[in-house]
Amino acid sequence: MPPANPAVDTAEVTALLERGRTLTTPVLKAAVDRLASPMDTVAAYHFGWIDALGNPADGDGGKAVRPALALLSAEAAGMPAETGVPGAVAVELVHNFSLLHDDLMDGDEQRRHRDTVWKVHGPAQAILVGDALFALANEVLLELGTVDAGRATRRLTTASRKLIDGQAQDISYEHRERVTVEECLAMEGNKTGALLACACSIGAVLGGVDERTADILESYGHHLGLAFQAVDDLLGIWGDPESTGKQTWSDLRQRKKSLPVVAALAAGGPASEKLGELLAADAKAPDFDAFSEEEFAMRAALIEEAGGREWTAQEARRQHAVAIEALGSVGMPERVRDQLTALADFVVVRRR
What we know:
By secondary structure, the protein is mostly helical. Helices cover 72% and strands 1% of the residues. The chain is built from 16 helices and two strands. The mean pLDDT is 92.
């Protein structure tokens, strides 16, 4: 299923992701500990540090791509990786704020192979803890008290606003019969690209890099985010539930106008027309409870037949190439450039 097949150095990428977790997690836990009870416990459950009964757990805390990028961002500016830790923590807090709210809005009952927060602790706690994590993100940066921390906070708040714009667009598209490819890319550029772009510049900004360099690093991250989301869209339909931790045909169940769906509808031809008829009828159905697995499989097959799957894979490859090209405009240690390239390669070959 991979949309590209670069030779990913798995050991190097694993080490980068693990470094991100190792340096970020203690600061992240200290920030979460500031929350009033029971929000601290609910947040700890969401991050996988405890189970639903409050017992210590070694849960799947996610891929940790954003923290890894924030630390590399600092190194791209010639600073130690540790300079980027507050930025990595802030980005992770905003990212998880969005996950808590998204799971509730989408009705997702599973994330990372376990029940979501709203399912275990209720919708109210999911909303409150999400809000608290968002506030903590700004607090972690601003308490540094430097001019560069203020610059970093401005970039983070702008990215957060774009992320929320993207989520609002995503929800509105679920109730429309047709969405253009351009609209879908703009939505995904907000919902996924903006925060990933911020992660790629925030460490450098904390290290005092100039605005032009920070903007170029953000450009790398923006296009990487679009590649990341294109792969997510493929996994949302054809991903293995054992790997993704979500239901089969997850995005189809939620009526998402993801890139494969939108591209298939725009392609024309018999499969595209049949898919359009089915989705138009689906939009009038109150829910999908009565749908069989075969009916979702048929929609997935029509999307593939119409070319939506291959178009999305090609778009992931294109966005990946643009991201790598942007790195050529920034002077940085070659080791860091190679590691940023390795992470970009990982994004387009992942299975979850």
